Amino acid sequence: HSTDPLLRVETLRSSYGRIEALHGVSLSVASGEIVALVGGNGAGKTTLLRTISGVQPMTGGSLSFQGRDISRASPHARVAAGIAQVPEGRQIFAPLAIEDNLRLGAYLRKDAEIASDLERVYDLFPVLKERRRNPAGGLSGGQQQMLAIGRALMSRPKLLLLDEPSMGLAPVLVDQVFEIIQRLNREDGVTVFLVEQNAFAALSIATRGYVIETGEIAMEGKGEALLADERVREAYLGV
Ligand code: ATP
């Protein structure tokens, strides 16, 4: 249905053994948006992303993508449907060449446009092209984050899920990575859902945002409205 959001998360629950980490999370991401989910350590951000991509089981609620229920779809079926995750800590394959890491992102594809998508990734991240034959392990933290984003783009996602893209990066690199995320959204039409502890960086580029606290959505609003909110400023912006 054309009025369905691209992603709908409804009263989602997820547990580690007997410990429930997500207590019924509901949110949505419309096509074309950049949506940020901010929250502190252990709030459940990573668990939520991993549940959406299907690598972490859900124990209740439902997930739909483009109006279709994907609650029981395998992780690779979700990738094939257009959901790609950039995992926390990048998880690149250090001994493999940069270009081989990128090609792994296209492993489910059989179409003829893989080569032009690789050129697009190199256009976004020239440093990856310069060093494409070198082992990925030799890249700096910021370059590895770029590689992880590039690898996710090689699956041609409609929805890009990013887990703490700013983690471990110097401020200037955080700005660079967030600029690229905006370009992908604007120029390539990729819808973005990102989770961050760096609330300032994330809400600054977000159309809309959510605040998660101990496995529950505590607030929701436009990016700039949350940035201006007294409670958000005290709890997450240190002001
Ligand atoms: P961070 O920013 O530190 O990654 P987060 O918001 O991503 O935090 P999660 O990693 O999703 O939070 O953790 C949510 C809750 O689930 C926490 O209470 C955490 O201790 C718990 N948890 C996470 N991973 C596991 C696991 N593998 N086994 C048991 N409990 C876990």
Q: Strand sequence of the main sheet, in spatial order?
A: 6-7-8-3-9-10
Low-confidence stretches: none
Class from secondary-structure proportions: alpha/beta
> Shape from CA axes?
globular
The helix tally amounts to: 10
- Percentage of residues in DSSP E strands: 25-35%
Distance between the termini: 43 Å
- Proportion in helices: 25-40%
Radius of gyration: 17 Å
Q: Which series of helices and strands comes N to C?
A: EEEHEEHEHHHHEHEHEEHH
Would you count the extended β strands for me? 10
Main sheet specs: 6 strands, mixed
Listed once per kind, the bound small molecules are: adenosine-5'-triphosphate
Mean pLDDT, to the nearest integer, reads: 94
If you had to describe this structure to a student in words, what would you say it looks like?
- One of its GO terms (biological process) is L-amino acid transport.
- Belongs to the ABC transporter superfamily.
- Keywords: Amino-acid transport, ATP-binding, Nucleotide-binding, Transport.
- With 239 residues, the protein is α/β, with parallel strands linked by helices.
- It is built from ten helices and ten strands.
- The strands form two sheets. The protein has a six-stranded mixed β-sheet, sandwiched between helices.
- Strand 7 (159-163), helix 7 (171-188) and strand 8 (191-196) form a beta-alpha-beta unit.
- The longest helix has 18 residues, at 171-188.
- The mean pLDDT is 94.
- The chain binds adenosine-5'-triphosphate.
- Residues 16, 19, 21, 39, 41-47, 197 line the site of adenosine-5'-triphosphate.
